[in-house]
Amino acid sequence: MENSSNLMEQPSGDSTETMTGGHMMSPQDPDNPFNWPIHRRVYASAVSVAFGFAVAFGATMYTAGIPDVISDFNVSYTVAILPFSLYFLGIAFAPITTPHLSERLGRSRVYLISLPLFSLFILGAGLSKNMAGLAVCRFFAGFFGGPCLVLIEGTFADIWSAKATVSYYSVLTLASYIGAGAGPLVGGFVVAAKGWRWTQWVTLMVALAAYLLGIGIPETYNRAIMIRRAKRLGLPAPKLMEAGSGVTLTDMSRITLFTPLKMLVAEPIVTAISLYLGFNFAIIFSFFISIPVVLNLTYMFTLQQAGLAFNAAIVGSLLAAATSIIIDRLISLKLSRKCSDPMMNLEYRLIPAMIGGIGMTASFFWIAWTASPTINWPSPVIGTLLYVWGNMSILISFISYLFDAYPPRGTLSALTAAASFRLVLAAALPLVILQMIMGLTGAWAYSLFGFISAALMPVPFVLFKWGAKLRARSKYNHEMMGMAGKQSMGHVDPEMGHMSSRS
């Protein structure tokens, strides 16, 4: 009964850090994840990274087996790509559904249910006897694995201070980028030795290893911790604000479906960021289709050699995380001397996107005009490294910015819009990327991407200058704040109900 006195304890003293992080629990509450021993916080973070890695690995591991799939099922290259694209289409539902699940079940239960269901459909994909079965199983593998990629953001937000948003988002993004980069790297050797079905068996092994690591994952979501603690101690359920993702079906649909659609077309910040990130995701996942083909046609690379080229993607990811963290730390040190509130300087989180956008645009032209038999293969591979560095820098920057650009419900809607939109585009472009390269030639196809990237490059600069004014004038800031005010009336303390905007 030692913790019972803390069950409904209100924040006292300086609770800025806890409230900024979207927490309901008192800073003095020993069950508050901010107060956990460092080894427990690192363990929960490592588990979420492992789960996200497994799902990302499963996405791209399949690409190494596409030639074998074509041979086994006698289908075209485009049809063989379909299970790869459908996987992302399945994941695209996760930002819409996962907030509602985590609000009601807690994060740990969603993790521990999601990954086994994911594994079940990966097993089905490996056993598929026809193309339709493979495509359907891959779609549902993405659908059920998607929450692992969405929850990782909420888990890190539960555990680490909002002041470290850029730093921890840099780390958690590595889970998906390194997982995706490792897929074809491992897959090239696996397929050469065992055939395409082993891309699914190895994915199952990775998922099993992640699950065994994560069996003891502690619950990190404040709302779930408080409800479970009350039940364990035989106390009445705590009085909390209604679930931030909505209570009724109408509310839930509005917050994670209709409002995101509206923001996607009518909210300048969300529209601009979603377009930029959608373009980035479409290109980076089409690379997993186009790079092996280009390296084979241009340099006669084997499947294993083409897989090794994805080491460049892994190195680019590590460099992007490192540079984003360094930039954030340097800016934080400088700004802390001027202003104690990190939210006052939110636009400074856009600096990595400014730098990354320049690098990414340059990389397109680099790859376009150096992938030639007359130029050694390391040149376009290094160009790919530069592209991944720029791409990931932009993602870290923009999502860290959206995390705190709106009140909690507005942020949830904005993040949902940006995430689902970029995943849909990631599913679409790989289906036509080879036709683009064959029709325009590789040089002009990637030059076209370079021109589009150059057109999008001013986005972070514009938001840096006018983002604060756009946020202040946004109707979603005023509407969501008004809704929060209404909900806090009565017997519920508004701070107790301040949900994490990263659910």
Task: Characterize the structure shown.
- By secondary structure, the chain is mainly alpha-helical.
- The protein contains 21 helices and no strands.
- It has helices spanning 16-20, 38-61, 66-73, 77-91, 94-105, 107-127, 131-159, 165-194, 197-214, 222-232, 249-266, 268-299, 303-308, 311-336, 351-370, 378-403, 408-428, 433-440, 442-456, 459-473, 475-487.
- Helix 2 (38-61) packs antiparallel against helix 7 (131-159), helix 6 packs antiparallel against helix 9 and helix 11 crosses helix 12.
- Residues 1-22 and 484-503 have low confidence and may be disordered.
List its traits.
mainly alpha, 74% helix
In short:
The protein is mostly helical and 503 residues long. The chain is built from 21 helices and no strands.
Annotate the secondary structure layout.
Elements: H1 16-20, H2 38-61, H3 66-73, H4 77-91, H5 94-105, H6 107-127, H7 131-159, H8 165-194, H9 197-214, H10 222-232, H11 249-266, H12 268-299, H13 303-308, H14 311-336, H15 351-370, H16 378-403, H17 408-428, H18 433-440, H19 442-456, H20 459-473, H21 475-487
Order of helices and strands: HHHHHHHHHHHHHHHHHHHHH
Tally of helical segments = 21
Give the radius of gyration: 23 Å
**What's the N-to-C terminus distance?**
29 Å
Q: Based on CA inertia axes, which overall geometry fits? A: globular
Identify low-pLDDT runs.
1-22, 484-503
> What percent of residues adopt helix (DSSP H or I)?
over 70%
> How many beta strands in the DSSP annotation?
0
Structural class determined from secondary elements: mainly alpha
- Biggest pleated sheet: none
Into which percentage range does the β-strand content fall?
under 5%
Report mean pLDDT, rounded to a whole number.
87
